[in-house]
């Protein structure tokens, strides 16, 4: 990929032009990075205190009993947001939808096991585990094959 930067007083504001022969996932990621350059913060509630959550520490985010929780190591921290809102914030950090109620961190995956019903059981480095429903298996495998996992331990 070639990058050109033209710094000149004639330019009133920054402008980005991408030239390509076709749309690709790489372009999708670039556009997403540009749009999300001002990332929102993610806060959780733990023991009646508000805590700042580092997306790189989260294994997965899940919905349970109409509440949203972040699984960090072996503990769960409540997040006072909707799951789709959390998904938008965490997308630049390599999070993807695992099921209707779970968003997972692709960088924390240690291994997979195929379940009898076509779902995948995902094991995280922390020892946590979660399931990917059949609908989301192919997109996640494709993303990981393209280099979605950057945390090689």
From TrEMBL:
Using the record's annotation, list all stretches that form the HTH LytTR-type domain: 43-146
Mind telling me which InterPro entries this protein's record contains? LytR-like, LytTR_DNA-bd_dom
Which UniProt keywords are given for this protein, alphabetically ordered?
Cytoplasm, DNA-binding, Transcription, Transcription regulation
One Pfam short name: LytTR
Q: Which GO terms describe its molecular function?
A: DNA binding
The name of this protein is: LytTR family DNA-binding domain-containing protein
Decide whether keyword Hydrolase is in the record: no
Q: Where is the signal peptide?
A: none
